Amino acid sequence: MSLSSTCDCLTSRAWRSTTQIRRHDARIPVIFITTAKGADAAIEAMKQGAYDYLFKPLDLHQLRDVIGEAMEVSRRMRQPSVVTETIPEADIEGAIVGSCPAMREVYKSIGRVAGQDVPVLITGESGTGKDVIAHAIYQHGNRALAPFLALNCAAIPEHLLESELFGHEKGAFTGA
Q1: Rounded Cα–Cα distance for residues 17 and 159 (Å)
Q2: Distance (Å, whole) CA 166 – CA 133
Q3: What's the Cα-to-Cα distance from 128 to each of 48, 56, 123, rounded to whole Å?
Q4: How far apart are CA 29 and CA 67, in angstroms?
Q5: CA atoms within 13 A of residue 166's CA, in its CB half-sphere
Q6: Alpha carbons 174 and 172: distance in angstroms, whole number
Q7: Are 70 and 51 in contact (CB under 8 A)?
Q8: How far is CA 65 from CA 21, 52, 59, in A?
Q9: Which distant-in-sequence residues (6+ apart) come within 8 Å of 79 by Cβ?
Q10: Could you tell me the mean pLDDT of each successive run of 10 residues in the chain, 176 residues long?
Q11: pLDDT digits (tens, 9 = 90+) for 7-25
C-alpha cells in the first residue's frame, strides 16, 4: 500500500502536517484521530511514525491516557540516554476487520513491525488469525514484492525449531 492510496483513509493534509512535524522534530509524538475503521489506515499511520491511532467516537479517558503517555515518551526522548557496555539480548487487503480496542492494538503492532527488518514470531491459539496477521505484516512491509513464506512452528520438530528461527553453528547437533 502506498502513501497515496492511504490518503483515501486519511486526508493528505494530515499526512503533510505529520511530515512537517516529523521533519521539524521527530521526537514530537503524533496522535491520529479518525473515523476510518479499516486496518490499512491504522497500519500506515503507525508505519509513518504515529505515536498512536485513535478512533472516533473518542473515549476521553483513553485520549487523556494516550496524551499523558505521549508526553512522557517525548520527555524521555529528550533526556540523554545512558549507554551500557552490555549488548541487549498474496494481497489480502481488507482481510482484517474489527475496531474493538484489542484489534486496534493489533493494527498498531502490525504498523510498528511492518517497516522493520526483523524476524517476527506470532503466537496464539489455533484459529486466531496468526496467518492473516503474518500476511498483513508482509503486505505492509518493505518486502511486499518478495515471496511470502509462513512458517508453521508446530510442524517443526522441537529440537530443530531454534535452529530454523535463529540459525546454528556447524556441528551444533546431528545434521548441522
Answers
A1: 51
A2: 21
A3: 27, 26, 9
A4: 9
A5: 7
A6: 7
A7: yes
A8: 22, 11, 10
A9: none
A10: 42 75 81 80 78 86 90 75 45 65 87 84 85 86 76 70 71 61
A11: 444 567 777 787 788 788 7
Domain residue ranges in the chain: 3-166
- Could you report the per-residue pLDDT of 76-108, keeping only the tens digit for each? 777 655 444 444 444 444 467 777 888 888 888
